[in-house]
Amino acid sequence: MDWNQIFQNTVRAAVGVDAIYFAIAAIGLNVQFGYTGLVNFGQAAFMACGSYGLGMTAQYFGIGLWWGIPLGIVCVIILALIVGIPTLRLRADYLAIVTIATAEIVRLFVRSVKFNKVFGGTEGISNFSREYRDLNPFEPGRTYGVVPFRFSGYTLITIVVGWVLVAIFAALVWQLMRSPWGRVIKGIREDEDAVRSLGKNVYAYKMQSLIIGGIIGMFAGMVLALDRGSVQPDNYSRDVTFYVLTALVLGGLAKVSGSIVGSMLFWVLFVLSDNILREITRNGPLRIGDFTVIQSTQVGAVNYMFVGLGLMLLMTYRPQGLFGNRKEMALDGR
Amino acid sequence: MLGDSRSVKTLILRVCLLIVSGVGLFGGFTASVVSASSDDYSIIASVQNQTLVDGSTSRTPVAGVAVTVTKADGSKIGDGVTDESGLCTIVVPSRDDYLISIDPSSLPEGLALIDADKSTVSISKDLFTTNTKRVTFFTGEGASSGASETERILQRLSDGIRLGIIIAMCSVGLSLVFGTTGLTNFAHGEMVTFGGLMAFFFNVILEIPILISGPVVIVLGGLFGLLFNWGIFARLTKRGIGLISQLVVTVGLSIMLRNIYLFQFGGRTKQLSSYSKQVNIEIGPIGITPRDLTTAILGVIILVSVALFLQRSRLGKAIRAVSDNVQLASATGIDTRKVIKIVWFAGGALAATGGIFRGLDEQVSFSMGSDLLFLMFAGITLGGLGSAFGALIGGFFIGIFVEMSSLFVPSELKVAPALFILIVVLIVRPQGILGKSQRVG
């Protein structure tokens, strides 16, 4: 068993692209769920807005890549209005239902044969990121860094850009939550009626929070799309939101550092479990006597089983996450 | 706290054991075969007839079907007829985008394309991984082709009623659990899947006919629901964990269970063996298999008995009372905890029944229930969250609506209009048809 390699992969996962896009998505989800108490189960759809915003510039509009950002923002706002207008006046679980449904339908739309020309169907979109690649100061073929943090120049650009984005959004959200706006937002989470009685338009604040969180989530989708060089509809399945949520709860809700540390930790644990299981099953299924415990095709399922179990246990025994503050956990102040 | 921690762990162990012991089947994945290459680019069209033998699909080639290849602009590249092995090779000039179509009228008597919309398949140049690209058309017996508009509408209506019955059945539990405990259970879809997979286990692996194994599965489904309550949600409530936190727990539970199913059952869809070989009987213009007709009638009987039970029996009245107002019901001497247990049992049993019916109707897969979850939510929101009758009516309506809407929208997007209904209901009448209106923000 190559433990050295497993160790390297695990440590590298803490700073890799997966951790970055999860961190950005989690910062966005934190604005909505952690600070405002909006149960947004459709962060994947906001991420898809970003990816497809970039992809569609080449696939459908034939305009420069960076137009993808305003395009994505417009999509996010439209999506936020669709899910927000009917539900933000209602109890929290309605938003959960509508966002999960909308995210699923967004995914069905982008992978449909009907809109193949616009979104590229199940194949997705590729060949849109040249402008971004041309900006890369690193040589794509060369390997940079020291063990275990060795990345090819091709990936390194996204890692640098990604962490800069993480820092920007972390600082932005941190500032926002210290501002009067942030205090109102947290007030809504604690006691909506109290905030309303102070003459604040709760509905508008919730909508703003949904849009801001959605736009941050959109950038997560963009980082993913630029790194992969392609946009795949199945990267935005319903479960992606839940994995981001698990990372967020792991790090601690309503804490900026929580989203970042949580995402890093999530991927470290995930890659560790994945690598160990793959190592075990590499030379055929693991058996105890005649009973097959696990075979290589089942590794993915086991990893995600752990994610689900982890989310349940965290929410039950440590809802404030590993580093969170329990005082900030008033999720049921409807 | 320590005791709780231990019991949640034992519960999770039990859930795992139950499923591991229950579905002892490992799904395999088969790699697709890539054909050999030559210098020219060619498209191989393959026409295969699908029949179901002993729970697995068997395919036989169909000869003599006319195949045409055209470019995207409609210009013809070549045509041919399938041989004994169901294949037809057409040489194409270059790696490009093509449309491959077969002539449905050239199919042998009694065969029709399984998906009538797929008589033409488009391929893009990226799909040529080698010099040849294989395209397969699947036919099945007795699917109606060339039906008139009224016939299509009636056929969709009959499909819709069957889907509606299943959704109504599945969503009663979801709505009642919400009504009595306030919990929105995102793992409810997994209770439906549980029914389907258990039916597969008894029916295909142990080879017990569904008529005998069905009731067993339904009881197991009820116990599964009870296990949810006893092992997780009753304990969480006792610990004073809020409803939104519990909602996130149901999400974790859903992910965990779905992946346990995937682990045990594999990613492919599989067929139940009982009543899989059926010939359509014609009732007026509608073609329906005796199996589907039976499940539809049984479904209606079950739904009506559920409604009568809730309306007439003492227990049903108690359930409605708790669902209406827990404190008030408790004050009038109703044992609310007992009622909640019964609701979980009944909800689980009904969800499992829905899973069996869905498995007979379509196929069984690890995500069959979670795929229906959104439709169930649309149904109970339409009917009124927390109202059992609302769930029956709303679920039934959503099923019909979804199938009918596939007359107008591509069938891959037919669930999208259900979202539209969901949003319109929430704007116009957020309490649903039968829900009681309450001030919410």
Q: Overview of this structure, please?
A:
Chain A has 334 residues and is mainly alpha-helical. Chain A has one domain (3-237). Helix content of chain A is 68%, strand content 4%. Chain A has helices at 3-13, 17-35, 43-61, 68-87, 92-110, 116-119, 130-134, 153-178, 180-190, 192-197, 202-228, 238-251, 256-281, 299-317, and strands spanning 125-126, 143-144, 151-152, 230-231, 286-288, 291-294. In chain A, the strands form three sheets. In chain A, strands 1-4 form a two-stranded antiparallel sheet. In chain A, strands 2-3 form a two-stranded antiparallel ribbon. The mean pLDDT of chain A is 89. By secondary structure, chain B is an alpha+beta fold. In chain B, 54% of the residues lie in helices and 15% in strands. Chain B has twelve helices and eleven strands. Chain B has helices at residues 2-22, 149-181, 188-205, 210-238, 243-265, 290-312, 314-324, 326-331, 336-361, 368-383, 388-405, 416-428, and strands at 41-53, 56-61, 66-71, 76-81, 87-92, 98-102, 111-113, 120-123, 132-141, 281-283, 286-288. In chain B, the strands form three sheets. In chain B, strands 1, 2, 5, 7 and 9 form a five-stranded mixed beta sheet that branches. The longest helix of chain B is centred in the middle third of the chain and has 33 residues, at 149-181. Classes of the chains: A mainly alpha (334), B alpha+beta (441). Chains A and B meet through helix 4, helix 5, helix 12 and helix 14 of A and helix 1, helix 5, helix 10 and helix 12 of B.
